[in-house]
Amino acid sequence: MNQSAQLLLRKEANLTLRDVLALMLQNNPELASFSKEILAFEGTKLQASKFRNPDFTVEAEDVNSSNPALQRFTTFRISQLIELGGKRRARMDVASLGQELADKSYEVKRLELIARTANTFIDVLAGQERLRVAEETLQLTRKVVDTAYKRVESGKAPPIEETRSRVALSTATIELEQARRDLASARTQLSLLWGSAIPQFGEVLGDLEATVLIPAFEVLEHHILNNPLAQRGVKNVEHRAALIELEKSRRIPDVTLGGGVRRYLISEDTTAVVNLSIPIPLFDRNQGNLQEAYQRLNKAKDEQMTVDLLLRTELTRAYQSLLAAQNEIKLLHDEVLPGARSAFEVANRGYELGRFSFLEMLDAQRALFQNRVLYVRALANYQRLINEIERLIAAPLDGLLGMNSTRQSDGNQEYKE
């Protein structure tokens, strides 16, 4: 972990989503491996631009002959392959597009990791909220136990009510421990994203209840091609088309041109020699490689169409789920939770006065706890769906509307970078 990450995590500091994204982008090993692939293509481009090295040849004839009538000689020759048909330029184009394709693969992985990190951040944030709900429920249950004990002691309730209250207390304790374990697991998964097996931060800071204005579906669909996955499909088609041009250039024979001197050993004469060789494309005209390149281009086009369809399908699903989650949150916030809280307060007060049974009060308490947990889950699901849509369009939703959002995901500007 680099020094800036260590400073960010010192003294178990609380982290925002922007902090978490910075840690992940700086230290995630999976993302680092993709950046190395891009750097490797610098060497590929360099090699593709190089000319073929010349050949130096030494020839000697009749070196072991004892017949003086034979004219023995030695030839020194330099030959150079001259590529025709634009092979070098085609190789450079393929290498350059290969690097651009690697750039898009890096962007795809980067966007995927940003979305994964944002979702894990939401898991931790929701885990913290669920833990607070479990702690408050445990405190309420302890008050119920005290009330039940007093009623039993005063003879206003049978002893079984105290037993039931203690069972409810045990259940609330178990739920609290489960909430702690789930939060610890989410914290570990979050820290693993920047290569740390042990969470070294305090809490994550955010607001689960913050919302954004949801644009119309047509607006989101218009931005779907900004996704690096779609752009990688386009770049893959261009790369395959460049490979076709390279295979076409290889149908044109190259010329080998050479020159040198020949030294006759007996007469001590010297003469110049020149050679020119051209392959005759009689049998091999690179037909197979060219056919393969065309088919791989067709495959790349099919894959591009498949990716575009998949992105649009995922966007449709996420958009409809987001609208449903928005309605669910509104219903829980405006009707269900106030009703459950009011029912519990009435039942609890009524139980203290002897107007309601213990089971009625316990049911009201359980309903309040379950609906509070359901509300937290609905909020977390809403935030995850926002993350999913922003991943698909590779941009923050509030940026599309040109408005400032109060949503906690202040790191979502990473989607545009």
Can you walk me through this structure?
A hairpin with a 5-residue loop joins strand 3 and strand 4 (270-277). Helix 3 (29-48) packs antiparallel against helix 4. A four-stranded antiparallel sheet has the order 1-2-3-4, with no helix packed on it. With 417 residues, it is α+β, with helices and mostly antiparallel strands. The chain is elongated. Mean pLDDT is 87; it is low at 403-417. The protein is built from ten helices and four strands; from the N terminus they run H-H-H-E-E-H-H-H-H-E-E-H-H-H.
Question: What topology emerges from the helices and strands here?
Answer:
Layout: H1 3-9, H2 17-27, H3 29-48, E1 55-61, E2 73-82, H4 87-153, H5 159-192, H6 217-222, H7 228-249, E3 255-264, E4 270-277, H8 287-352, H9 358-393, H10 397-401
Helix pairs in contact: 2-4, 3-4, 4-5, 4-7, 4-9, 7-8, 8-9
Q: How is this structure best summarized?
A:
With 417 residues, this protein is α+β, with helices and mostly antiparallel strands.
